[in-house]
Amino acid sequence: MDTTALLQDKLVELELKANQARQLLIETLLEAGSGHSAGPLGMTDIFTAFYFYILKHDPKNPDWVDRDRLILSNGHICPIRYVSMAMAGYFPIEELKTLRKINSRLQGHPHRSALPGVETTSGPLGEGLSQGIGIALAAKLDKKNYQVYVLASDGEHQEGNTWEAAMFAGKHKLNNLTLVIDRNNIQIDGFTENVMPLEPLKEKYLSFGWEVLEVDGNNIEAFINTVKEARGIFEKPVCIIAHTIPGMGVSFMEKDFTWHGKPPNKEEAQKALTQLRTLQGRIQSEHQ
Amino acid sequence: MLNPDLKLNEKLFDEDVESLATRDGFGQALVELGEKNPNVVVLTADLSESTRTDGFEKKFPERFFEVGVAEQNMAAIAAGLGTSGKMAFISSYATFSPGKNWETIRTTIVYNQANVKVAGHHSGIMTGPDGATHQATEDIAITRVWPGIEVYVPCDAIEAKKATLESAKINGPAYLRFTRDKTPIITTKETPFNKNKVQTFWISENPQATIFACGYMLYFALLAAKNLESQGINVLVANVSTIKPADEESIVELSKKTGKVITVEDHQITGGLGGMIAEILAKKSPTPMEFIGLKDTFAESGNWKDLLKKYEMDEKAIEKAVENIINK
């Protein structure tokens, strides 16, 4: 990751990439006919920041031993990971059309053995932070300098396993581990604070021996700067609470938990794409 | 008689037969593996001494991880290590691991094909006084059902060591089943061990029934065979130390020799060794069977030898099952 300030041109490039990713995401979900919409849209800016700026990685050599590891704990938002990977060159964009279909490498929830680069098999919630810890421990044992980033949902903090992992990382002061929580406040059955309150989330992590940073997860520049700040903390693991808007970029999906677990139909997709293309034009004209 | 080709313990039926717990064989193997392979790591969930990982811990503290009472976390951390060039052994009581953390192991270790070996201790009603909460009697069933895992049930401490070393030869998941108390040493260092081979430990002329046994219960099967021989009843006793991969060829061949089969295990009779043998024979050579094991019930606290008697799993029960099946 470049540690100098983000150049305006780079930022515009990233914002346009995120916009393109959202369009591809809508098309991919429409083609798949099932899957999750709100989470992936909300996390598009963060995935864009990772794949096109933060990560030390090589799409043509996904098993490169010194690569940074990006672990997706809440596997159900994998469509945005697949879109980002395809855009980064891990596999052809055309292959996105196979999502959730027979004989595809793009399983409905990601599978490590099926697709190089997804790092872990995930979907059942609350297991990603622990796996990230194992990978971070391996890095320490091997004296490797790669960074382990774990992306987790807020809802999966209702799983006990998440807190078992939080305790362990605090005990071992794993400074090569960064957790990014997608704080979008929704889960399948409703708003997290109604289903099973998570707050005060920040204080919980602080009390488990972590450093906690908060950021607007839909602001690419702010997010990148927060990750930079996190990398400067060497005493303990860092948790970044990224406040995101579920369904971000598509007005009728934003902040509506009913879009957690369903894809758009044809008309809805068309409407979404029209909005996103308008946004694309706006980003381009604003920076011309 | 004991199969002379297998170089078994000649003093097996002596009163002062040497005894050791299978978990001790596991502990010895861990230290040996740690010395040979710098990538071997061990994790435990607050059960270091009783699952015999303390020897490894003392010798290789930097490669030993105490996760506390958190079996799901232990499994998934091991998965991360096992997909990053390490070979991780996780060790706890089988009711908790692979019991409590079953889905975590399924997803992050087995489906993920991580190089992790799950050591399940205190299996069977032999766990005794602790009661049924701590007696794992379903662990074979819930592990052998997974695609792509090896399942070992060693018969004594020596075989436990060999099975642990064998599991380390593959870059993938394995389940190793161990028991708490000292049990007779059946094999010797010279006894061959092959994960793909079911070996006949007791041979006889014109056998009338074939006994398949796993774990320490093999000793009681052999004891039953010896007692039956004195009554003029001849049987074969085979050691199924590897539930998966299953040596279907030998199992069918040994069953065909007598046409009567008895399975013996300290586990529920459904889904364990009995289930496994029944599945193979139903498909390839249907054979009348008797099942020795826990019969769809939880056991209770007590001295394990008393429990074996109460739940009709001791050598007398095995002898009775043989008599039943040959008189059918």
Detail the topology: elements first, then pairings:
The complex is a heterodimer of chains A (288) and B (328).
Chain A: H1 8-32, H2 38-42, H3 44-54, E1 69-72, H4 78-88, H5 128-141, E2 148-153, H6 160-172, E3 177-183, E4 186-187, E5 190-191, H7 192-195, H8 201-207, E6 211-216, H9 220-231, E7 238-243, H10 266-286
Chain B: E1 19-20, H1 22-36, E2 40-44, H2 54-59, E3 64-66, H3 71-82, E4 87-93, H4 95-100, H5 102-111, E5 116-121, H6 139-144, E6 150-152, H7 157-167, E7 174-177, E8 183-184, E9 199-202, E10 209-213, H8 217-230, E11 235-239, E12 242-244, H9 248-258, E13 261-268, H10 273-284, E14 289-294, H11 304-310, H12 315-326
Parallel strand pairs in B: 2-3, 2-4, 4-5, 5-7, 6-7, 10-11, 10-13, 13-14
Antiparallel strand pairs in B: 1-8, 6-12, 9-11
Helix pairs in contact in B: 1-7, 3-5, 8-12, 9-10
Order of helices and strands of chain A: HHHEHHEHEEEHHEHEH
Shape of chain A: globular
Helical content of chain B (DSSP H or I, runs of 4+): 25-40%
The assembly state of the depicted protein chains is heterodimer
Instruction: Round the Cα radius of gyration of chain B to an integer and report it.
Output: 19 Å
Helix content of chain A: 40-55%
What is the CA–CA distance across the termini of chain B? 25 Å
Strands in their spatial order, largest beta sheet of chain A: 1-2-3-7-6
Query: What is the count of DSSP helices of chain B, taking H or I runs of 4+ residues?
Result: 12
Number of helical segments with 4 or more residues of chain A? 10
The overall average pLDDT of chain B, rounded, is 98
Q: What fraction of the residues of chain A are assigned to beta strands by DSSP?
A: 5-15%
Q: In what range is the share of β-strand residues of chain B?
A: 15-25%
From the alpha-carbon coordinates, what is the Rg of chain A to the nearest angstrom?
18 Å
